[in-house]
Amino acid sequence: MSDPASLAEVRSRIDALDGELVRLLADRQALVRRAAAFKADEQAVRAPGRVEQVVEAARARAAGAGLSPEVAEAVWRAMIAAFIDLELAEHKAGTAEPRPGNRH
């Protein structure tokens, strides 16, 4: 990737990346919603051990990709917290539909 020649170009590239990130987050959300159907209770949704596993993986990937591991951790923790809130709301509302083979 060539260096941007202006602030407008930097912003344009950021906007394009943001569009890709939104699409990827929508894909992640769909998977989170599927996972919610397999979780029986709030503890299963919160899954602190899994959270730490995902955060550590993000930090490792970040280091390999040239992203600050601290930035990656902060972003992943915020993202995970938002998706946990979504899952909990869906469980409370009864919209986390059971799937065949789940443990409900």
From TrEMBL:
InterPro entries assigned: Chorismate_II_sf (IPR036263), Chorismate_mutase-related (IPR051331), CM_dom_sf (IPR036979), CM_II_prokaryot (IPR002701)
Taxonomic classification: Bacteria, Bacillati, Actinomycetota, Actinomycetes, Streptosporangiales
Name of the protein in its database record: Chorismate mutase
NADP listed as a keyword: no
Keyword check for rRNA-binding: no
Gene Ontology BP, a term: salicylic acid biosynthetic process
An example molecular function term from Gene Ontology annotations: chorismate mutase activity
Domain Chorismate mutase, residue spans: 1-91
Record's keyword terms, sorted: Isomerase
Pfam family membership, one: CM_2
Superkingdom of the organism of origin: Bacteria
